[in-house]
């Protein structure tokens, strides 16, 4: 009854839109920018570390990937909060939006001890790489700090779900921007040292990341409990635990968590295998993957927008608008990838040289490793151009299917695809002993077949059954 009264007097214009490009852009652009800020934050970490030497940069990439893989199950499960919030908003159950979000916060806190139990698995994975002693030490340091700050990382990933679900992504963008500024400043001071603060190197990069995440998380929670949000969603009355909402979040979110864990574990396997091919291959692949991160992570903003809009239209039982929003997301994604592709094709040398070690700081061997890896890195960047166009199809269709509630199928499809790619790399690099840059060609070729599967799933219309069953 109260919901009906609230909906009568509060009708945002966003609900009158129908999934066209403008509709998607309202949600996607702030999310794309916020993801870009997160990417820039990570990119700067590794750029600063690269000036110390390839070992520090490679350690940050390797440790960061393992940390993401171990955290991804929990953050992936919690991320389904976006779709649940969007479905309630579309179904005009506005006050349930805040209650759904609070259940995700409780799950985040409960997950922290479980996350700590996975730390030995990370150390075991590092042992499989047969890394140089200095890189292994740096890698463990970076990894341990990020993992023990797990509560910050989990809440940092849960906090934007409410706002992306209701389609008000500008606040997420602003929080990410503030976190980025703090992170960059802290990284510079903590990595290199300034005044009374000693140079901490890799450890400083990890602490800077956590500090930036704290800032953005505090901003989002402050907005959630603000007067404006409370008037619309009763956020200050949403603290009660709800087993039905938690059960739904676990039922639909766990497949997403498993999927994202399998995806990150497969990606980490790629990094492990490239790094095990030697310091030149490790450096070349690290540079390529750092730039791939710049190209890919902003696309995740489009994925979140696709999940949010499709979830909203599923809640409103409007399958036609859900389909339009998906195709609109594809148009925007390809436009972005075209810009990135131009840089990858025509400026690979410039992109590679950004990571060149500082002559005054790095050792002679570090400079020799970089110079040997430079041609390979340029080659891999050019091949990655095709890779980023393929990623657009994957993120948009995967986001749309998640928003429609088709999370189990997405879990199996993504898991099988990514591990098939990892197996292909192993066969090419370790069975046939081809060089790293040729192995990368095979990885991209195999990966490029996956969008056909997701496209066929979407075209089959099986996700529409969730429209009929929307709450």
From TrEMBL:
<keyword id="KW-0472">Membrane</keyword>
<feature type="transmembrane region" description="Helical">
    <location>
        <begin position="438"/>
        <end position="455"/>
    </location>
</feature>
<feature type="transmembrane region" description="Helical">
    <location>
        <begin position="171"/>
        <end position="194"/>
    </location>
</feature>
<feature type="transmembrane region" description="Helical">
    <location>
        <begin position="64"/>
        <end position="85"/>
    </location>
</feature>
<keyword id="KW-0812">Transmembrane</keyword>
<feature type="transmembrane region" description="Helical">
    <location>
        <begin position="293"/>
        <end position="311"/>
    </location>
</feature>
<feature type="transmembrane region" description="Helical">
    <location>
        <begin position="379"/>
        <end position="401"/>
    </location>
</feature>
<feature type="transmembrane region" description="Helical">
    <location>
        <begin position="105"/>
        <end position="126"/>
    </location>
</feature>
<keyword id="KW-0050">Antiport</keyword>
<keyword id="KW-1133">Transmembrane helix</keyword>
<keyword id="KW-0813">Transport</keyword>
<feature type="transmembrane region" description="Helical">
    <location>
        <begin position="260"/>
        <end position="278"/>
    </location>
</feature>
<dbReference type="InterPro" id="IPR050222">
    <property type="entry name" value="MATE_MdtK"/>
</dbReference>
<feature type="transmembrane region" description="Helical">
    <location>
        <begin position="24"/>
        <end position="44"/>
    </location>
</feature>
<feature type="transmembrane region" description="Helical">
    <location>
        <begin position="141"/>
        <end position="159"/>
    </location>
</feature>
<feature type="transmembrane region" description="Helical">
    <location>
        <begin position="206"/>
        <end position="226"/>
    </location>
</feature>
<keyword id="KW-1003">Cell membrane</keyword>
<dbReference type="InterPro" id="IPR002528">
    <property type="entry name" value="MATE_fam"/>
</dbReference>
<dbReference type="InterPro" id="IPR048279">
    <property type="entry name" value="MdtK-like"/>
</dbReference>
<keyword id="KW-0406">Ion transport</keyword>
<dbReference type="Pfam" id="PF01554">
    <property type="entry name" value="MatE"/>
</dbReference>
<protein>
    <recommendedName>
        <fullName>Multidrug-efflux transporter</fullName>
    </recommendedName>
</protein>
<feature type="transmembrane region" description="Helical">
    <location>
        <begin position="408"/>
        <end position="432"/>
    </location>
</feature>
<feature type="transmembrane region" description="Helical">
    <location>
        <begin position="332"/>
        <end position="351"/>
    </location>
</feature>
């Amino acid at each position: 009854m109260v919901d009906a009264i609230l909906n009568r007097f509060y009708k945002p214009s966003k609900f009158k839109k129908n999934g066209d490009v403008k509709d998607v852009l309202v949600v996607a652009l702030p999310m794309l920018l916020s993801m870009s800020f997160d990417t820039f934050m990570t990119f700067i970490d590794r750029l600063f570390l690269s000036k110390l030497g390839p070992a520090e940069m490679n350690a940050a990439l390797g440790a960061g990937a393992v940390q993401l893989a171990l955290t991804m199950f929990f953050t992936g499960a919690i991320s389904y909060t976006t779709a649940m919030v969007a479905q309630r908003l579309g179904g005009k159950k506005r006050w349930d939006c805040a209650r759904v979000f609070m259940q995700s916060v409780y799950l985040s806190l409960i997950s922290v001890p479980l996350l700590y139990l996975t730390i030995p698995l990370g150390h075991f994975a590092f042992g499989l790489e047969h890394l140089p002693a200095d890189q292994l030490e740096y890698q463990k340091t970076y990894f341990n700090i990020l993992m023990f700050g797990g509560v910050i990382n989990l809440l940092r990933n849960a906090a934007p779900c409410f706002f992306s679900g209701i389609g008000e992504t500008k606040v997420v963008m602003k929080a990410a921007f503030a976190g980025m500024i703090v992170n960059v400043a802290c990284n510079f001071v903590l990595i290199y040292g300034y005044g009374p603060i000693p140079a901490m190197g890799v450890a400083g990069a990890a602490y800077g990341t956590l500090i930036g995440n704290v800032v953005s998380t505090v901003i989002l929670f402050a907005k959630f409990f603000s007067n404006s949000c409370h008037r619309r969603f009763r956020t200050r009355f949403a603290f009660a635990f709800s087993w039905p909402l938690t059960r739904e979040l676990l039922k639909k979110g766990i497949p997403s968590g498993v999927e994202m864990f399998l995806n990150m574990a497969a990606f980490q396997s790629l990094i492990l295998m490239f790094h095990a091919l030697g310091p030149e291959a490790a450096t070349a692949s690290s540079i390529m993957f750092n730039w791939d991160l710049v190209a890919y992570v902003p696309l995740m903003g489009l994925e979140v927008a696709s999940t949010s809009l499709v979830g909203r239209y599923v809640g409103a039982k409007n399958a036609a608008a859900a389909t339009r929003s998906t195709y609109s997301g594809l148009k925007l994604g390809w436009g972005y990838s075209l810009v990135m592709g131009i840089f990858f094709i025509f400026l690979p040398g410039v992109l590679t040289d950004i990571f060149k070690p500082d002559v005054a700081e790095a050792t002679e061997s570090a400079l020799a490793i970089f110079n040997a890896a430079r041609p390979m890195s340029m080659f891999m960047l050019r091949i990655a151009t095709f890779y980023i166009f393929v990623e657009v199809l994957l993120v948009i269709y995967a986001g749309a299917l998640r928003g429609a509630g088709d999370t189990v199928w997405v879990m199996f499809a993504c898991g099988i695809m990514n591990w098939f790619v990892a197996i292909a790399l192993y066969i090419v690099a370790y069975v046939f002993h081809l060089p790293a840059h040729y192995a990368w060609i095979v990885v991209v070729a195999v990966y490029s077949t996956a969008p056909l599967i997701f496209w066929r799933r979407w075209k089959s219309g099986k996700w529409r059954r969730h429209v009929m069953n929307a709450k």
